[in-house]
Every structure is written in structure tokens, then in C-alpha cells.
């Protein structure tokens, strides 16, 4: 089996550095299943700028800027395809995955699985996604549409233990190759290099345009696999004072108070502390209510007439928000607002966060919300503006050294007791040098990728 051309992470951070013929083919390609689309797994849009939205202060109620990087232009409509590719690439380069007809298994609660469903067949493998049965129907449709298969495990977003149990069964078959986003450092490296690098360059651009000053005051990210928040490690290399803020659902506050439970924010809050999450680098933890995320999404998507009349927002601005956010994106926005208020950030300071995906995989979720809670009338929409403008200040936890050590120790239960890691491996994660060494591997991996082409 001949593999297609594989991009380096540097080429995904800077698409302009891709070979000219590859750039032309990738930009012109309209077939979403063509392997050349691998080179379009980038945060940059057709104009070469990092795709983002700056939210109006009339909506956020903050003096600080809230900047949301959008992942919906990635080939699958979510930036999670990047980590799926990165993990696959590293398996190919190391020889752990060979060109022998292996089945790639992607444990996921949604977008990483969709990314795996897409990337596996593009590289020439069969993909099998393991995800909870209560995820949105649109997620299952996308997986099937990309030519992959899926296994639905019991429960909802936070039932990752059930996913791991099924993966343990699948691992017994030597034809299956497990690409576990929760422990695979290909995920960390993608976000450190590509997401973090893109955020740094966007911040520099905004500063040159005098939109902001001082770079990035805080980077806010909900924890799903713990991958996206790795961007903060790269951001702090450029902006050392940047606060790193993690986000969980109130209904499943695992790091906050060793809590548990089911919730409706698809893509985050997976009821365990992931192996690749650098918890020692986290300054603050905030928790967000899942119902507010659902209602906030409906307001942004279907209540724009109310936002125009009540807040005076221009129709052009509101139209630019159409389809941009999913549930976890709204969660990140609410957490970014909460962060700006907590630190009392002023004008010119900027809080960065991400919208992992867009609205395309959530219409069924909003229809369920409407069935359960009734239609969103203009009066209801007006009340819901308070979700953004009047956030509560509860469920906020400072990342003191003692608290960070507890977050770290919580990894023991999943990874040592259940998944066979050693205590020595766990303790290695506490050392800052471990993480810098992981990030530094990108250069060598990129060099191997280029050598593979020749």
C-alpha cells in the first residue's frame, strides 16, 4: 500500500511553506475525501489568516477582548482531526503502525473520533471509532459518512471508562492499532505546535492592528482529551504572564472536587484526568453549567434578532457568528468571560479561547432542548442574555501548588490502577522538563516526515 503525501506540523502551522504544487492542489480541491485535504488541517483560512471571532463587548460585558479561534474550517469541521492525524503520523514513523491492513481504533467522545474516521481512510486504513451511545446523531452520521465504522458504548460524554473497557477488548486483536487521544503525545504535540503557534501569531497580528496589547492575558480551554490546553505551554514561551485556565462542567467537576456525573457539553468533562494534560501549568480552574451552554448556543444561533434589538449589535456582526459555535465553544466563551472578570482584565488585554467545532453537529441537540424546555420566545431570549452578561462567580479554583499536586495525583486512579502505567511514569509527568522534551520532538518528527516523501 502506497501512503499519500503526509504534511509536517510546521506545514500545518504555516501552510505557505508547503510545496507550491501541493498548496495549489489543496486549496483548489473541492472533494472533502481527497487525501490532499490532509494539507488543509490548519487554523488558517483562504486568506491565510487564523480563523477567529472577536466577540462584541456588548455581549460579553467585559472590558477585555474575548478572541475565539474557530476550528470549523478544518476538513472535518473540527480541529480535532489534527490530533488524530498527528497520532497516526507518529505511529507510522515509529513503525508501531505498519502498512499491513491494520484497523485504527479511535477512542473518543466525538470530534476526535470524527477526525479519526476521516484521516484513517485518507491514509489508507480502516477506522473504527469507539464513542458513547448518547452523543449527537450528527456525530454518528459524520463517522459513517467518512467511511468508518463505530461502536457505541453505554452512557454519555463522561462515560470514558466504558470506552476504555471496550478498547481493552479490541486490543487483544493484533490487527487493531489503538490511537488513544487521552494518552498519546501526538495530540499534545499538535496543539503545542500548531494551535499554540497559531494563537501566538494571531495575538501578534492583533497587537500590530492595535486591537490588543500585551499579547495573550489568558488562554482558556475546556478539558476533553487535555490536548487543546497544550497550546498554552507554547503561548507562555512567548507571553510568560499568560494565565492558563482549564474548564469543566459543573455536572462533572472531576478536577474541581473529584466530582463525577453525566453532562451535556459534548467534547469535554470526561470524568478523569488525562495523561497528556500538563496540570502543573494550570493557574485557574472554572466550572460551567451545561444547561447554560445549551441555552447560550440556542441564543447565538437562533436568537440573533433579540441580540440586535436588545444589545444594538449590527446584523453583519451577528451574521458572522452564524454556525461558528458548538456546545463546547459556548462553554469556552462563558469560561473566558468568567476568567476576564475573575482577573479584572482591562481594555487592551485579551483572553483567547477556541471553538472546537461549529453548529453543524448540534441541530438535533437544540431540537431536544426545545422539546424538553419549550420554544425560545423573544422574552426567553432576552432573559438568556444574562448567561453571558451576568455570570456567577462560583466554581472557581486557584491552581496553587497543593491543588496542582492533587490534580496530578488524580491521574493515578485511571492510568496506574486501570491502564497499566507505572508510578515512575506518573511522577515523570510532574517535572516541567518532561513537557519541554515532548514539544521538542516535533522538529525530528517533521524531518522524518520529509525524508519519507523522498
How does this structure look, described?
- With 454 residues, the chain is an alpha/beta fold.
- It folds into 2 domains: 52-76 and 192-408, Rossmann fold (3-Layer(aba) Sandwich); 81-180, 3-Layer(aba) Sandwich (Rossmann fold), CATH 3.40.50.
- The protein is built from 21 helices and 11 strands.
- It has helices spanning 9-13, 20-28, 57-60, 81-94, 111-123, 137-145, 160-171, 185-208, 231-238, 254-257, 290-302, 304-311, 315-320, 327-342, 363-373, 378-384, 386-389, 401-409, 411-418, 423-428, 432-453, and strands at 52-54, 65-70, 103-107, 126-132, 149-153, 176-178, 218-222, 243-249, 284-288, 350-355, 396-398.
- The protein has a 7-stranded mixed sheet with strand order 1-2-10-7-8-9-11, with helices on both faces.
- Helix 9 links the parallel strand 7 (218-222) and strand 8.
- It is globular.
Write the layout of secondary structure elements.
Elements: H1 9-13, H2 20-28, E1 52-54, H3 57-60, E2 65-70, H4 81-94, E3 103-107, H5 111-123, E4 126-132, H6 137-145, E5 149-153, H7 160-171, E6 176-178, H8 185-208, E7 218-222, H9 231-238, E8 243-249, H10 254-257, E9 284-288, H11 290-302, H12 304-311, H13 315-320, H14 327-342, E10 350-355, H15 363-373, H16 378-384, H17 386-389, E11 396-398, H18 401-409, H19 411-418, H20 423-428, H21 432-453
Parallel strand pairs: 2-10, 3-4, 3-6, 4-5, 7-8, 7-10, 8-9
Antiparallel strand pairs: 1-2, 9-11
Helix pairs in contact: 4-5, 4-8, 5-6, 8-9, 8-21, 11-14
| CATH topology call of the largest domain | Rossmann fold
CATH architecture label name of the largest domain:
3-Layer(aba) Sandwich
CATH class of the largest domain: Alpha Beta
Look at the structure and give the mean pLDDT: 94
How far the N terminus sits from the C terminus, by CA atoms, comes to 16 Å
Q: Going across the major beta sheet, what is the strand order? A: 1-2-10-7-8-9-11
The share of residues in helices is 40-55%
The poorly predicted ranges are none
The number of distinct structural domains comes to 2
Supply the number of helical segments.
Answer: 21
| Total number of strands | 11
Class by helix and strand content?
Answer: alpha/beta
Report the radius of gyration as a whole number of Å.
Answer: 21 Å
Strand content: 5-15%
Approximate shape: globular
